[in-house]
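Morning!

As promised:
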Amino acid sequence: MSTALEQIEQEIAKLSNKAVKKNTGTIRAVADGVAKLDGLSDVMYNEMVQFPGGAIGIALNLEEDEVGCVVLGDISKLKEGDEVTTTGRLLSVPVGKALLGRTVDALGSPIDGKGPIDSKETFPVEKIAPGIIVRKSVTQPLFTGIMAIDSMIPIGRGQRELIIGDRGTGKTAIAIDTIINQAKINKVGLASGDKTFRPVYSIYVAVGQKQSNIVRTMSALEAAGALEFTIIVAAAAADNPANQYLAPYSGAAMGEWFMENGMDALIVYDDLSKHAVAYRQISLILKRPSGREAYPGDVFYLHSRLLERAARLDGKGSLTALPIIETLAGDVSAYIPTNVISITDGQIFLETDLFNQGIRPAVSVGLSVSRVGSAAQIKATKQVGGKLKGELAQFRELAAFAQFGSDLDAKTKAQLDRGGRIVELFKQPAFSPLPIELQVAVLFAMQKGFFDNVDLKRVVDAANSLKSYMTTRKDALLTEIRTKAALDKDLEAKLQAACDEWKPTLAA
Amino acid sequence: MASKAKTAQHLARALFRASLVGGALSEERVGGVIAYIEKARPANPLWVLRAYHRLVANEVAKGVAVVEHAGAVGEATLASIAGAMAKKYSRPVRAVPRDEPSLVAGIRVRIGDDVYESSIAGQLEALSGAA
């Protein structure tokens, strides 16, 4: 027996003394976050390489006798001739619920000063998107809490819905509202003890933004109590382009963990225009051939492989993506916007003119669309808001004639009047998402003509009054709408009665 | 500037390919390449020569196993390392010893851009990286 043991011990000793093979290279040049390396003949595409001083890099250009690599971390200590080694690993980031409530960088390291993150698992940053067999159609709604969106451009779990518009039109506000709304729904759902309830966790990826904006977003989420359900991945404008390029993929990996583990997640990429710019910068420094607007040839693939990772998986969870694109002077036909429009399942287009007219959120109903359509809407919303988009479209068409009001026939005047009221009704301040049951109640009141004799300028006040009335006095009715998710005759009668009760209070 | 460097690189690669006979570097061909550069004077000859030098140096390094060691290494050990490397890389390999006290104990073999680490210093580094 002792001989057998000796044999095993010798084998262990042999193995532990075995030489470790490393593939190495040397730095030939470092500039602007990109290193050119000699050697590294065994390196794989997208493999992580180790630089001296703890910095890591990702091999992006594999040439005959040279490797182009983006450096993540401090490049100031790197110099020509330094040795670089391959790691045999793809870049991975920590994933899991331990990241909720935290702000991390593109590598998943905490940057919020709240101490280390106790994460047990890691996921690769780059991953092939789920195939067609494992996917399921998008049928479950994801409520944004914004009435104009939930009623006319519904978003489903697993969908990719683009938020597009000029600077300062409220794109980020819509995304933040959606995150806050998920947190509100999560709190209600988890408190109800309903075992079938599926919370939605959020990931907000800030790419190329000002640090002050990121802090503002963090504060808004914290103030709304949404931070505990949210992970923030920040690659600010001051970060090197490699981090800005990687941040969305890191966020996607974190979201995939929820999806793979049977949970639902929402990811916001704010914004992909800056992401494309960061990638263009890296590509130009790597001397890749440039194409239209100096973007490299694979800029479409850059975004398609990212957004394809959002999905609803059969028997598992979902990952919903809300990418943001900033347009210049409302030009949706520019290179990056058209790319992302064609990749996503619809877009919410925000117009500067509407924003300046005080219509906020400045959603352009004509140009906005959700390709999932009413499949991702609860029946109650379809019942009260099914015709809204058509009515608003007619209103926009007729609005040009509004200035000749006196010459219009009664029907046209009525349509204009109604359209104007709907527009007013959809006005909603930032960071105050509305629960879906309250949206149903307000839209029901509108459909039943309860706002018809309210002065146009007072429609917003009247709607606020109805919301306040329903929340404070008709909580049971709202809960019933939420749980039934459809308006039967009994519920309609109760809603009618509640609105009848409310109307006199408005007159007073 | 960038295109000049690229052109020089392309030429250097072509000259390097011309310097190989049956996949191995031929000293005679290298001499011929140098003579060609002197005679033909291509654009930016310094860049071409530097790039060519790098390629040739990399190729030469593939045939030399630098054995870094702390403490004495016998001729027999060097010969066995050279034999093992020649078998692995299917080319003649020459072992060259180099004293490296920072390894503490053990050896490290460098051949081309591969490094075989079997030293205490390497193991300590790996341990510190894992922690």
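DSSP finds five helices and six strands in chain B.

Hope this helps with the figure draft.
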